[in-house]
Amino acid sequence: MPYVRLSIMKPRRGEDARCEELLRKLDEAAAAHGGVQVHYLMRPSDESGEIARLAVYDSEDAAERAANDTHIMALRSEIHLLVEPGHTERAFFTI
Question: Can you give the three-state secondary structure of 19-76, one letter per residue?
Fold first, then answer.
């Protein structure tokens, strides 16, 4: 059953390019780990300054294996320092 992770964040002023670069590296690392069906980086059509990452995994186990990889954890920690507090992290199962 596919498992979806959605992250929505707003980079701190001046950190847009670095945040996007790290999110791309995160996508590459997750894809190399296996179990990723597709991933996207997205921006809304408004001027909110937000950026979103959507990843569809084969299963929750595949998502958890990727999330617990030390390289991926390091990237997520670095991203966390570049974004405004209160970002959204959600996970969904297909129904």
Answer: HHHHHHHHHHHHHHHCCEEEEEEECCCCCCCCEEEEEEECCHHHHHHHHCCHHHHHHH
Tens digit of each residue's pLDDT, the chain (95 residues): 899 999 999 999 999 999 999 999 999 999 998 899 999 999 999 999 999 999 999 999 999 999 999 999 999 999 999 999 988 989 898 76
Find the CATH number of the domain harbouring 68.
3.30.70.100
Domain that holds residue 41: 3-93
CB 9 within 8 A of CB 51: yes
**Which amino acid appears at position 77 of this protein?**
S
